Amino acid sequence: MPMNPEQKIILISFLLLLNSCITPFIPHTGEDNKLLVVEGLITDQLDTNTIKVSRSLPLGIRSNSKPVNGCIVTVSDDLGNIYRFKETIAGTYVTDPSEFQGVIGRFYTLHINTSNASNNLNYESSPMELKPVPAIDSVYYEKVTIAEPAGGWTRKEGCQIYLNTNDTSNKCKFYKWDFNETWEFQLPYPVTNWRCWVSNNASPINIKTTSGLAENRIVRHTLNFISNNTDRLKEKYSILANQYSLNENEYVYWEKLQSITESIGTLYDITPASVPGNIYCIENPTETVLGYFSVSAKKSKRIFIKDRFLGLVNLYSYDNCYGDTVGGGTFIPNLNTTVWILIDHSPDWVVITRNKGCADCTVRGTNREPDFWNKSN
Q1: What is the CB neighbour count within 10 angstroms for residue 252?
Q2: Backbone angles phi, psi at 256, to 5 degrees
Q3: pLDDT tens-digit series, residues 234-249
């Protein structure tokens, strides 16, 4: 039955009142809002090792945690050696590769002193053994059909990346992986910076154990999936797979964290206090400390993908790049500040754009070719 004007006014007023009463729901967790958070990994590679120290923020604040600067951060081994970390930026502490490199079979302990007059506390990790990890046998990809052709549209394809590994020595039972990816993209205009590269470090919780299996072999383990909704596959793509050894306690830590992350989605921005790490406060052992000090051997393997994938979506459409066509020799106000030359046919005419990304690929990436790029097939 149609509503009369008076009924419509009453309904609209009720809906507005209802909307004004809605407030964000922040669940009560009983957790401290300023827990110490420690992220750290040392490996057997001749590389920089990093420890990050911060304070967690209250639940519901969509922001990064607050760095803790001025700490004294050291790592000791079971032979009595002590290595000092240097603070580079607030809350980030690193080693000098020429002075420190993890050794397989050694036990390492992390020490942190907050070095603050109002909160001068000492934190320590459990001794962690640097366990060996086997080499990665292979990293490879397969094309995946995302959608079959329909209505005149071509097939849509993505790329599934796998790895195989095998520990014939049977010394590593618990694994973790992350990866670094780099891809080339090109602008469709004859500008100076038309070819660039973008890099991304990905650290998903990607773990697996061979404990309980008949042999210590991992086959077709999923490393990454690339959909057609990106330009990663358009020109040339590279992925560097990193494989780490874990002890059983750390594997359980990541397994629990993975389970919580999958079940609650993005509700929490910090590591839930219900997942205990391996770091504690010496003065107050009951204090909750978030994060984990990881010690691991590391093996890496890189592959390149230069193939034709169907149905790639051009997310970075250049159809709207064109601005005005200007006669040659014409004065162009704000050139190279808010206006850029897209096509140069001097002295006759030029095409300008007001989108810098259309005329300069360094807006998204770097025009410096990676050192490893030409080492591919």
Answers
A1: 16
A2: -65, -45
A3: 999 999 999 999 999 9
